[in-house]
Amino acid sequence: MDEQFDFKKIEIIIGLGNTGNEYLNTRHNAGFEFVDYMANGTRFVKDDKLKAFVADVSINGQRVRLLKPTTMMNYSGETLVLAMNYFKIDPSKVLVVFDDLDLPLGEFKIQFARGPKVHNGLLSLENRSKVKDFWRVRIGVDSRDEVTRNSVSGSDYVLAKFKIKERDLLQETFFKIVEEIL
Questions:
Q1: What CATH code would you report for 7-181?
Q2: pTM of the prediction?
């Protein structure tokens, strides 16, 4: 039986991505872009002790910390562990948001303690924290046709920038996610 998502229990939303201008607007930074969307203009501040950019926001009257790790995608687990220890919170109060090449662009899944098949950022979170019991929002980023799927590796594809029409669909997806989680 699946757990029922309850936003009132979430204290941290951590978006996965890579820092640096070369990664802006790439598919692999969908998690960063989602927390930017949730911040709604609130400024992020670099917090070296958490190895993250942090924004404290109020969403529907609830205080939530938005985090964007500065560790790069494959080491995101460092930030998760530091934040859980510093704020003394249970992993079930964490919502992790990330790109997912297993889902088509425009689709998403909200799941507890499972999915996707392979994602190095997520593996880092699970390996460093030694738990899987946190919420996940998997944002679909795959819009490849048959030729592209066979000629471009998944790792190269997720590091490519979104096209304009894809960006519009991504923003629509963010809106739908927010509608569902709130």
A1: 3.40.50.1470
A2: 0.94
